[in-house]
Amino acid sequence: MRNYKLLLLTIVSLLIFEGCTNNKAASSKRLSFLPGLTKANLDELKNTEMRLDGETVPIYHMDGKRVQGMEMMTALMSGAYSPDPYVDSENEIKAYVLRKLSDEEMTKNKDKIKKLSEPKELQQRKSPLVGKKAPAFVATDLNGNAYSLADLKGKIVVLNFWFIACKPCLIEIPELNNLVEKYSEKEVVFLAITFDKKIALESFLQKQNFEYNIIPNSKDIIGQYKVYSFPTHIIIDKTSTVDLVLTGLSPSTVEQIDHAIARLNEK
118: exposed, middle or buried (C-beta count within 10 Å: 0-12, 13-18, 19+)? Predict the structure, then answer.
């Protein structure tokens, strides 16, 4: 469950692979921006793990531009592209290139993606936490600032459950930072809840900026909120009632958080 959206991307991509023509002539294709690499023969990669996080193996557009983060998510989940693997002389995947699909291929893939996505979306809307009082907690962030849900009543509280080794969690950080900036003058508190330890987080933050107030060593809070999948976002309204629960990485996640904050801020 933890990396559901990353797994979904892999499944979607494998479905796309299945519907694409695969022959030795096609596998001989080379691209100028990938010297030494050749388009893979998919039959030879059937037992190879496909890592489609955009970080472990880079993903490019056909023009050579690298695609990462939410741009990558949007492209893959659109069903409009096939992430064709390119391999080295040892048949090891070194890159993926997004190839535009035909109208017929896109129609088939969008139907498959819709069927895969719907059960999770329904689960999100039916989260047992929504509409109930949020579990009380007391926490201290990396800078020594203390937070109590009781003291936060009257404010909107945005919780992000994440951890350093969670690739989908890291992909969305830049957009989450934009949310913090957007609502910096509003009564909104952003807390990033993780079981990671302080020393690991401080090392991570030397390379990656994360504007949320980061709460380390928070297994108790994670357990209280029954979070089993990462990332998970929980929005708590001014009455300390859970308004929204979003699980996994999606191109629309941050937009949904933004809309929920704006709506609650008007009340």
Answer: exposed
